[in-house]
Design a protein that fits this description.
Six copies of one chain form a homohexamer. Chain A is α/β, with parallel strands linked by helices. Chain A is built from seven helices and four strands. In chain A, strand 1, helix 2 and strand 2 form a beta-alpha-beta unit. In chain A, helix 3 crosses helix 4. Chains A, B, C, D, E, F: Keywords: Hydrolase, Metal-binding, Zinc.
Chain lengths: 248, 248, 248, 248, 248, 248
């Protein structure tokens, strides 16, 4: 169900059946020596496909640019502003409503996008209450993560190019991982870094927030499967509610 | 030279060598029964790869959403505003300057994006004169088109899902074309349509502006090669100028 | 039917009769040694008066500032941004709806204004579908131009202070033309100029894109009359449609 | 010194001599049965010409649209927002700096424009301190007004289509006044009207705030001459300061 | 009736009874050696409390930042833009409507806020006609001022840290006044200052526009009571109109 | 060190000594039956005073309006947009730089403000790198919280009117707490609530996310003191760094 491979003559009926469009959104951003700049795009895209298969949804083309303020000074990072993201996501949502979609799931592979996604979702919620908008960033994976990880997290809310994210890549996009270059480089992140604008070059030179060498495909599989189940259930429930409302 | 497949450790030196980033930008839009919604994305992306190969440039991930006001009421179209596009393109350009690029070539597969691209380019020109910004929409193809086309154009400035665009697809993305569904449906476009907001459903039901059945891979090849030569020369010249400036 | 000469007590009834307001919009911009800076304003204004006479429309006061990015570095040019134009045109359109007008014809004398006019028209179309908005830039003149011009055009889409525009001035505002200073100065405009921000001083020192010495009042008359007929027909048809809708 | 009648070849030197550009700015707005909708434009334009003559300044083309919120529901009024005005005035000021002007005098014929003019002037002051920006609304006329008026003002800060403004018109644009339709219609304006948005239709049906029948050309002449002297002195002083700064 | 001291369980019913919310809005700005930076906040806040008592209204928390362009270069001044104020006031008004308020009285202690308040009020008037919005800056005090003041005003429209404002402070916030440091420092304000951006340091070093030594609590009392009566009457009338509309 | 009680004559020298301005920012928002609408303002303000005392900083007047999207439908809530907050905070920061401050600490009492504060801080960081900007929301309190709380948190990232926040109020603003009305009302918050716009009325009727009856002054004291120590250390270090930079 790759949306852009459909043609205009057939697509209207399929939208009516599917009701749900999934937008992968990631970023182009430094991910250490062993992962590509497009890691967040790859993860979002592959996860979106799996989710689409399980929920009979359409996958929209990936929006591959995100807000990477913290890493913008690292080689290869491309940063776009919250304003640009919010406006574009709002416009996409507006078109989806017009096209007959009732669920718009933004599948986010990059935490830095979260505030923009939330704002865009709220604006759509205000103007198009008939559209259910989701912003997913590995929901429901917390317990599995706690179980499978071997090293503690370098930071309370974000992870990056580390044991976790590298495991996700090994499961979802193994051909883009070069484990021979994986490093163990957990930074010490000062409490102050959470209270003032802090580019990451002040505490890491590799952008690897942890021990990437401990990543395995199996860890990735377990975590990704747990979040996939969560997202699948949420979308399935949403569809059911919509269908119930439609019944006479 | 797929930019997002690079990693942060190696990319800085390669940027220094390459100097040029190519951004494919297209749209999700109705393209008749024989072409997919993502036609403009596919064309921009494949053309970008060819151009990158010939000019030693990087291809950035495709920006797959464009301004499709005219066709927004057709099934499958997703429209984003000029404001969203301008802002995102400006932000991308700003990051490219910071990353050391000196040429930013927007390879556009959708005419409706042209005003936004021009505006974004002018803003970058004002703020970052050291960055050469291009907006390419099949430049240098005019004479070849005049030579190879069998049917007249339906409109003085735009073509869509017709003999021409279908030929481009046959050459660049044949696996996405279903010639068995190609139609001949040239509309009559009133002069008034150029002077007042006119959604295309007022003059076409297929969105095919011409005779798609006459499309051939050979026509596509000739036209695409002519524009590729033009773009290749423009970028090669720009690089040479930059390198000359750098000489002591 | 000069709108600003009307008084508030009488104007409401006249609007009800006329239905159509014509806004001349031009620019202050270098036009060579033989034409004044206000050439585009003069052309828009005089053409508007002729069109108003033939269609029983009101002429609004001229909006004399336009987007002249390309020539902004020439002496005398005054450039305003697309944003300023779009906002002002939108506001004017909104007031016209409130005043009872049903047709808003922007008579444009300067090609650089075209994208702003189109955007403003689309915004009004979205918010005030009951208002028919036109953006006219010499529509319907193409064939006559091909017939009467003696020299080829310097560029595929724009003409400036040349055989054509000077002829228009000789027909519409002869007292502002000094043919003794007219020059023949066709530039060579590189294909690259259409693909990257290119101020005109890079290819012309006079801003005359052609041979102004070949301009004649007769050429001007033929072309202007052809576009006047086209615009008159468009407005007459629009009025008729509105009146038909109103019939019981 | 009508700016738009100049040509690009000669104008640069003249700007260097003159240094000062005067922009008439008015509005299209109901002015009772005896004055035209364009009263504020006519007054601004004619006053600008007189001021230009006395100060060797250029008169720019009139910006004929203003903020007429209070009267927007009266027949014939065209209202534009502060945002549109501010943006356009800022852009014009920016171009004037680039063209070599050092004084930008906005000659305002409509009080409703005052906040936008002040804001635009402050923005230019911040970004272009070398440009002296004035916003003139009959400065220095207070004492003469107190002397010549026969009826008290209807409001502490504004006057409209009344003894005063009609007198200005009789002096500056007599051919547009129809004194046979002048009325005496002073409204009672509640104190509350200054503390809450109050469209003028709530207290007047004619938009004449006073006794227009008492207007005379002589009153107009005295007041206009007093403000002209004030403005002439201000601009003359400003020029002198600029020239002194330039001396070695 | 301090709004923020209420709790959510009880407040809905009280809003239904009161209908009116008063927002004190001031500024942080230099006020000479004898008055504190927060003078305008203190005046707005205390006046708001008195008005609330007399009209059974709620006092909202003070918005303590205002537009102080003219004094922004004086020690201690904090300036916020019109845009920030307008947006925040609009948002507050929108919430008040949702909460069931029908009257939103902005009690302004700083003249520089006036344009922003007026603009915000007009936007709310357009979008929420059911909400009556007031912007109060000492309304109805003119005659009393003329009676009690001993020295003439330094400027036709503004007063600052002078006989008047110091008197207000002596009446409303005496504990914040240090009369031993009060000065008599009337500036000469050129007519030009009203026609061009003019920071106040060009004509005063103390920011005291007059003779603060003549201030007395009694003068303050008389003026403040007169404006309180005016505001009380306006709000009482507004409430009465709303209640009448509600009657069956 | 209440900034708005200072006067302009003395304040410059004190700023030079202090270097640091603390801005309390809260919200007006439903906080259950036992806490006032202004809870977040009270907490921010009192905490700011304590922090100012320990760090020789100035306390600016409280910005009492915040982004309360989630609770905007509860009685008494007043919601302002991120845009309004960001713009106002940016403007305040800009003035602080001009006034000679080198540290701008936003002491936030309301989690919903966090994204706006972060964005404003990043904009100031870009434009005024000489200003150190902090956004504090109880930093360094995590361990103490884990130790003192008797009930688990209702949500991974937010707490509201519960055991914790009520304890803070008992310590900092006891006179505004009515423990007799405190309730135990922990909601069940679905995982979906973190992935889609979810007004809180969907899972709580009291807005108390936990057991407020377990709140004690002692718990409040321990947590507040731990965060105070953290913030004090951060500011003290920042001052030291600034002073070191200044040394010759």
């Amino acid at each position: 169900m790759n949306f852009q491979e459909e043609n205009a003559m057939d697509v209207a009926g399929k939208i009516e059946q599917s009701l749900c469009a999934i937008l992968p959104i990631g970023a182009v951003e430094a991910h250490g020596p062993h992962l590509p700049l497009g890691t967040d795009n790859l993860l979002a895209e592959r996860l979106a496909r799996l989710l689409a298969n399980r929920t009979n949804s359409f996958v929209l083309p990936t929006l591959p640019y995100g807000q990477v303020w913290s890493l913008q000074n690292f080689p290869g990072s491309i940063n776009v502003s919250n304003e640009a993201l919010i406006r574009m996501l709002y416009d996409i949502g507006e078109s989806l409503v017009r096209q007959g979609f009732r669920i718009f799931a933004m599948l986010n592979g990059h935490l830095g996008n979260a505030p923009a996604l939330k704002d865009a979702a709220r604006l759509l919620y205000r103007d198009y209450p008939e559209l259910k908008v989701y912003y997913f960033f590995y929901p429901g994976s917390k317990e599995t993560i706690a179980k499978v990880r071997d090293t503690p997290s370098s930071h309370a809310s974000y992870f990056h190019a580390c044991e976790l994210e590298t495991s996700y890549m090994l499961y979802l996009a193994e051909e883009h991982v070069d484990m021979s270059r994986a490093v163990n480089d957990p930074p010490t992140i000062d409490l102050e870094a959470d209270c003032t604008p802090t580019p990451w070059e002040t505490f890491t030179s590799t952008a690897v927030l942890g021990d990437a060498t401990l990543a395995t495909k199996e860890k990735g599989q377990q975590i990704i499967e747990s979040t996939l189940q969560t997202m699948t259930a949420i979308i399935a429930n949403a569809k059911q509610r919509i269908l119930l409302e439609r019944e006479p």
